[in-house]
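Q: Hi! New to this. If I give you a protein sequence and the SMILES for NDP, can you show me the bound structure?
A: Yes, paste them in.
Q: Okay, here:
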Amino acid sequence: MAAQSTIPVVVNGACGKMGREVIKAVTAAEDMTLVAAIDKNPAVLGEDIGEIAGCGPVEIPVTPDLEAALVQAQSEGLAVMIDFTHPDTIYNSVRAAIAYGVRPVVGTTGLTADQIKELAEFAEKASIGCLIIPNFSIGVVLMQQAAQQAAQYFNHVEIIELHHNQKADAPSGTAIQTAQMLSTPDKAFNPAQVEESEKMTGARGSTTDDGIRIHSVRLPGLIAHQEVLFGAPGQLYTLRHDTSDRACYMPGVLLAVRRVMPLKSLIYGLDKIL
Ligand SMILES: NC(=O)C1=CN([C@@H]2O[C@H](COP(=O)(O)OP(=O)(O)OC[C@H]3O[C@@H](n4cnc5c(N)ncnc54)[C@H](OP(=O)(O)O)[C@@H]3O)[C@@H](O)[C@H]2O)C=CC1
Ligand SMILES: O=C(O)C1=N[C@H](C(=O)O)C[C@H](O)C1
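A: Thanks. Here is the predicted structure of the protein with NDP bound:
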């Protein structure tokens, strides 16, 4: 069989904040062909997704029918579904893509650890690559790696994530992944110094099994930001990442589309494919 010239791509959640950036990036990528743009907003169904994304007409109408798009993509070669939708629907969409032989590249956050495990088993059985990437920006990977290093030397750490107030899930996928990356067997963070009592529920944030605190802020005016604060007697070490434009995620998204093609199982995190 002749090698395919471009990667057929389905974008799920195409009309959303991330979806519109992805449409611009995919249509500009020479090695990818946009096959379908899926969204559920009735007001935009049938409209040209290029017009909605602001990159000019691309003659792909917005449709709500993910399954038909997966069938079409699969018929055009080894295909990829990029998903930026909603925590409530992402599990079923990933299962559907794998069932149709289409490789999922998942930016949508909010999957539970159990769901990720099940999807990994499903992808493994189907021998289909799948990437779940809580954050596609290189700056966040570097912040997480610096935090991982610092966690070897500090016993006290709290994460503050700050996002726009349209965000459905809390804490952010990035904060959860960051906390996971700091975990090592046998280490409990933030050993209590006094007996604390919360006078308002949630004042001290949520706590991971190994004691890392995560605090979530939601405000208009924010995009996506995270601080990792390490404390020790006499010093504070603060790492911070700020997103000022969602374009920052696109190099990571396009890299993930290329990297998922030869995979036969699920990988979690951009750091694993750089
Ligand atoms: N991994 C990463 O680097 C990043 C991840 N994200 C994550 O991506 C997700 C989307 O974020 P964002 O773009 O800001 O959100 P938006 O709400 O702006 O966009 C989501 C889009 O998906 C549509 N949608 C929701 N459910 C479905 C469905 N079942 N089928 C088809 N379309 C659907 C929405 O339609 P409607 O408006 O009608 O609901 C909307 O158009 C979130 O989970 C967010 O946390 C965001 C930024 C970066
Ligand atoms: O909803 C967002 O905006 C973002 N979601 C991701 C997350 O939950 O970590 C990635 C980034 O923080 C932007």
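A: Helices lie at 17-28, 49-53, 66-75, 90-99, 113-126, 138-151, 173-182, 250-260. Let me know if you'd like me to explain how to read the tokens.
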